[in-house]
Amino acid sequence: MPFLIRIVDLGIRFGDHQVLQGWNMDIRRGERLVLLGQSGCGKTTFLKILSGLRKPSEGSVAGVPSRVGFVFQEPRLIPWATVGKNLRFANPSCPVEDLLARVHLSGWAHSYPRELSGGMQQRVNLARALGVEPELLLLDEAFGSLDLRHKFSIMEDLLEFWKRRNCTVLMVTHDITEALFLGDRILFLEGTPSRIDGEIKVELPPDRSPWSPEFLEYRGAIIRRFLETSKE
Amino acid sequence: MRNKALLGGIGVLLGWEIVARILGIPLVLPSFLETLKRLLDFIQEASFWLALAQSVGEVGLVLLLVLSIGIPLGVLFGMRPGVLAFCRPLLAIIQAVPVISWLGVVVFSLGIGWRGPVFISTLSLLPMAILTTASGVRSLDETLLEMARIYRVPRWRRMRVIYGGALLPFTEAVIDVALGNAWKVVLVTEYLCGDAGLGVLIAWARQGVDTPGIYALSAVAVCLGIASERIFRNFRRAFRGGKKTCLS
């Protein structure tokens, strides 16, 4: 699989505080890559670098495509604009009704964010990211605030989109189930400053059942790995 | 609700009439009926209508200047806190200077006429417009701006949609406060350095010890103030009802 983005010796420092150090990785075109690490290890900062909001303190990031979709941890919808206008804000020519249908929100284009539940707002957040027809889709703990039913439903919507478009997905999370449900490669982040400490390839079909023995086996292996690492 | 307001208004007028009769000093408090009669005399005079037109024009011009200068400057100051900090002493001085203190400067530089009242009234209201708008910009949700940058939304659309939408309630507050104060300040400055307008008519009435005239003209000013606030409120309701956001 050819790589889309190449990251070499990436480091980020806030003043004297080194957050990440010596990150080297290739993000392959069309893969669903997950960065799994604890809170505060610089995952969001890394996404900010990929989306062009920050510059790295050290190293380089090459190959970031121009069309990047970003699903934020919180919906970040414009409160005074309708759902349809929120989608058009990111891309004025996006097909609003089609996008809303994809995230099961048909008929909500003229509603305001305050009229939607948290789960529905998060779906709009996803629809806005898909509306820019991203080559790279970034997800920043995008499902953390959702209840279980909404979480899996939105992740299924996302997988459906990925199957159609085969865009590259990069998700950061601390949730093992989310990581295993969406990712086909998982990188582990460890230490302070955080570094990439190994990876696993998830050899499960895209349509995954979180209670299948294979899924639970992966889950157990990751938990075991974390526990062993923390003992060290 | 409307009936209660009407009853309240009638109550005020009745109270006025009763207190005036009990007091019995028309030079201090003329009766409501006497004031009404004087008002009827005024509205038959062409000079009254000319004065009214002049005051309305001056208030309109003051509002236009306050909004067109105050809001852009407020946006600039909100985006550049350093500039605001630099200009804050000047704004504080302008805000604190009493209207009467501008008189010398205005009369000698602009003479007696409409320019003085417009200049002084604009200066009096401008700091409020600038500081209110700057507060609006500073309270803007930074995460929305970050979202816009990630999606590479052009600067103009960003300004229009995010800044425009966030500033709307602050702009409405500026207009509300400016409308409420513009009538008072314009009439005072007309009184002090104007050549025409309701303020000048009040000055003449005072010179002629025409107390019912002063009350009648003050009542006209109060009615104009209330009417302009009502018009703005209805406009705002219509705007919010038909076009709820500033996105096209």
Concise synopsis of the structure shown:
The complex is a heterodimer of chains A (232) and B (248). Chain A is built from 7 helices and 9 strands; from the N terminus they run βββαββαααβαβαββα. Chain A is of the alpha/beta class and 232 residues long.
Q: How would you classify the quaternary structure? A: heterodimer
What structural category arises from helix and sheet content of chain A? alpha/beta
**The level-1 CATH class of chain B:** Mainly Alpha
Which CATH first-tier class of the domain at 3-64 and 170-231 in chain A would you pick? Alpha Beta
Report the order of strands and helices of chain A. EEEHEEHHHEHEHEEH
CATH architecture of chain B: Orthogonal Bundle
CATH fold node name of the domain at 3-64 and 170-231 in chain A? Rossmann fold
Regions with little confidence, pLDDT below 50 for 5+ residues of chain B: 242-248
CATH homologous superfamily designation of the domain at 3-64 and 170-231 in chain A: P-loop containing nucleotide triphosphate hydrolases
Question: What's the main sheet of chain B like?
Answer: none
Give a written overview of the molecule.
The complex is a heterodimer of chains A (232) and B (248). Chain A has a domain of 124 residues: Rossmann fold (3-Layer(aba) Sandwich). Chain A contains seven helices and nine strands. In chain A, the strands form two sheets. In chain A, strands 5-6-7-3-8-9 form a six-stranded mixed β-sheet, with helices on both faces. In chain A, strands 2-1-4 form a three-stranded antiparallel β-sheet, with helices on one face. In chain A, helix 4 runs parallel beside helix 5 and helix 6 packs across helix 7. The model of chain A has no long low-confidence stretch (mean pLDDT 91). By secondary structure, chain B is an all-alpha fold. Chain B has a single domain, classed as MetI-like (MetI-like fold). Chain B has ten helices and no strands. The longest helix of chain B has 39 residues. Classes of the chains: A alpha/beta (232), B mainly alpha (248). The interface between A and B is medium-sized, with 22 and 20 residues.
